[in-house]
Design a protein that fits this description.
With about 350 residues, the chain is of the alpha/beta class. The protein folds into 2 domains: about 35-130 and about 270-330, Bordetella uptake gene, domain 1 (D-Maltodextrin-Binding Protein, domain 2), CATH 3.40.190.150; about 135-260, D-Maltodextrin-Binding Protein, domain 2 (3-Layer(aba) Sandwich). The chain has helices at about 1-25, 25-30, 50-60, 80-90, 105-110, 145-150, 165-175, 190-200, 210-215, 215-220, 250-260, 265, 280-295, 295-305, 315-325, 330-340; strands spanning about 35-40, 70-75, 95-100, 125-130, 135-140, 155-160, 180-185, 205-210, 225-230, 270-275, 310-315. It has a 3-stranded parallel β-sheet with strand order 2-1-3, with helices on both faces. It has a 3-stranded antiparallel β-sheet with strand order 10-4-11. A 3-stranded antiparallel β-sheet has the order 8-5-9. Strand 6, helix 7 and strand 7 (about 180-185) form a beta-alpha-beta unit. Helix 3 runs antiparallel to helix 14 (about 295-305) and helix 11 (about 250-260) crosses helix 16. The chain is globular, with a radius of gyration of 24 Å. The protein starts with a helix and ends with a helix.
Length: about 350
């Protein structure tokens, strides 16, 4: 009896050991079951950052093993740098916290923005949904109706934080292209900025071309606004009358600075996470993102909303960020001087 008891005991130990080993060998497959993934959007609802965040949230969960819930939490502030800093320093590093933030976040680090408390190269990049084209628009009653007019007359524009395109580009063109923008800061996001413009609090605002095409079709139809500048490297096919910032600059050095800001369009509307997410979960998230971009329901929603989908992988996105961080010293110094950061 003693031998049989010992054998049975040993067998039980082996079974439990095998079960524990098997469970430990598949942590990534089981990890997301019963959990909720939070996507922190660096802006309020009403713009393309929020739009793409919610599109991803509606579809990506079914492509992740365990089918976790996915929610969007808006975290506006400092031109989305509040969300960027939170994601890097305070968010869980287990794959349950992701973010969608301003595409110039690596550039702001390279140019020594004091609001930056992260290393952009160390974020976990999941993938890009689409490139971006930020536009500057004036109300139809404003005294200026072209970009050249802004070189002749002071124009008030709603600012949405020190890391936002709505403040950076006006300051840059004031320094390098002779414009006379007066930034009225304090607006939380582009939606509030456009409301301020409509009410006459300011004469101009900035948002993405996608947000205008989706949310302000009546403004376009009724000619309530005039687009006077865009940040894409080339004029968009459906926005031929507005110059690109790459057309600005009187010297080679100044043109390089504008080209640098236009390059942020390639980073666009991207999904990312904190540093140090376990590699097996990074793979799951990246695979799920790519599957989402091909999901017929996701594609149908994008088509219905008439928004662009131009995905690239997390690996490719990471390389774009590293390229931005390694900008030439001469260009860095010229840009820093333009913003008074030197």
């Amino acid at each position: 009896m003693g031998r049989k008891t010992s054998f049975a005991h040993a067998l039980c130990v082996m079974v439990f050991a095998f079960a524990a080993t098997a469970a430990g060998a598949q942590p990534a497959d089981n990890f997301f079951a019963g959990k909720t993934i939070s996507i922190y959007c660096g802006y309020n609802p009403g713009g393309s950052y929020d739009l793409y965040s919610r599109m991803i949230a509606r579809h990506i969960g079914k492509h992740i093993p365990g089918n976790p819930g996915v929610t969007v939490q808006n975290m506006p502030g400092a031109g989305s740098l509040k969300a960027a800093n939170f994601l890097y320093n305070a968010a869980p590093k287990d794959g349950t916290a992701l973010g969608v933030i301003v595409e110039t976040h690596p550039l702001e680090q390279a140019l020594k923005n004091n609001a930056v408390h992260y290393d952009a190269a160390k974020y976990t990049y999941v993938g890009r949904v689409a490139s971006s084209n930020n536009v500057f628009l004036v109300w139809h009653t404003a005294p200026v109706q072209t970009f050249d007019d802004v070189r002749k007359h002071e124009v008030t524009i709603a600012g949405t934080g020190p890391g936002s395109i709505a403040e950076l580009i006006p300051l840059l063109t004031n320094a390098l292209a002779g414009t006379k923008w007066k930034v009225i800061t304090g607006y939380p996001a582009s939606n509030e900025a456009m409301v301020a413009m409509e009410r006459g609090e300011v004469q101009a605002s900035s948002t993405s071309w996608t947000a205008i095409k989706v949310g302000k079709k009546d403004w376009l139809r009724d000619k309530k606004i005039r687009i006077i500048l865009q940040t894409a490297p080339e004029r968009a096919h459906d926005l031929k009358d507005a110059p690109s910032i790459t057309e600005l600059g009187n010297t080679p050095e100044d043109k390089q600075v504008f080209d640098l800001y236009a390059s942020g369009s390639a980073i666009g509307r991207s999904l990312m996470g904190p540093p140090d997410i376990p590699p097996e979960r990074v793979k799951i998230l990246r695979d799920a993102f790519q599957a989402t971009m091909k999901d017929p329901e996701f594609v149908a929603e994008a088509q219905k909303l008439e928004v662009d989908v131009e995905p690239i992988t997390g690996e490719a996105l990471s390389e774009l960020v590293k390229k931005t961080l390694s900008l030439p010293d001469a260009v860095r110094q010229r840009a820093e001087a333009a913003f008074g950061r030197k």
